[in-house]
Amino acid sequence: MPNAALLLSRLRGEPQHTQELVELVLEDLLERPLAELVDPKLVGDALLSGLRNSLKNPGTKSWINERLQAGIAQLKADQRSLLRRVPRDAVEPVQDLLKRPYSPDPHVLRAMVDHQAMRNLMREVLTHSLTDFASKLKPPTKALGTGRLAQWAGAATVAAKMVGSEVERQLDGRIKSYVDGAISHAIGIAVDNVCDHKNAVEYGNMRADMIDVALAFPVSTWGRELAKLEPTALVDDVHQILSAAASSKELEEELRAMLEGMVEEQGHLSARAFLAGSGLEESWRPPMQTLMLSHTRNVIESQVFADWLHKVCE
């Protein structure tokens, strides 16, 4: 019969045993075929079951809201710029990525931007610009002096004022009619400009510069902007979307089909063979092993583990 006190003493006093146990677990995982590690039905059911149970739990939304509100409060109180919180070495690769020349498909872009909101915006801009331009086209009577020509100009001005309201009304009507017909053309010009490969570098630079602009603002600014999205309502919306998706039979079938396809294609390979050449095992195993070892030792040092071990050995 195993002696619980002796086992506990050995595990706590001789750390190499715990290290060997962690290594055994990792080796076993790496050497097992993927088909054994990933059971499509078991994994799919577990994922969906966990998601459904979390969504049904009334405390989940409250917990998310509390964390979200606390995070926003911290952001709103931080007056530092993002540039002081984000390492420059992490920003530059992002800017390089955004700078890469990219010319979108004009059909796709037009389908996305030719929306009523965009048309309303362009109507407002064009109408204001044309009306402002038309209002400035007035006879320069003051520059004509006091001679007969100035008298004629003055008489013309009086006559113009008599019919001014009617002219302006007709002009406004013509501007609105022209703008309504020009909006599609204006959207087309904008789309062609954005999609023209000759402008790809310029727009790439603009995207990269937007990062610098965003980083220059205080963190509190973005906290206020986030608060404008009404996070509580946003969480409710996301919760509703996830609930509808989780209860969908189609999602269950798609998830299982995806896992089955992966296992069917790669299931005969061990996890180690699957990762071969990627460098992932070499990169991730040492820190993963260290983390697992630390947690395992914490468990072994706990009274809960000691009680469990005594129970097993009885």
Question: Can you describe this structure?
Answer:
This protein is mostly helical and 314 residues long. Helix content is 81%, strand content 0%. The protein is built from 16 helices and no strands. The protein has helices spanning 4-13, 16-31, 34-37, 40-56, 58-77, 88-99, 106-113, 116-135, 148-195, 200-216, 219-228, 231-246, 249-266, 271-275, 280-301, 303-313. The termini are close together.
What is the C-alpha radius of gyration, as a whole number of Å? 35 Å
Q: What kind of sheet is the major sheet?
A: none
Low-confidence stretches: none
Strand-pairing-aware structural class: mainly alpha
Topology, number of strands:
0
Portion of residues within helices: over 70%
Number of helices: 16
Nearest-integer average pLDDT: 86
Distance between the termini: 8 Å
Shape: elongated
Order of helices and strands: HHHHHHHHHHHHHHHH
β-sheet strand percentage? under 5%
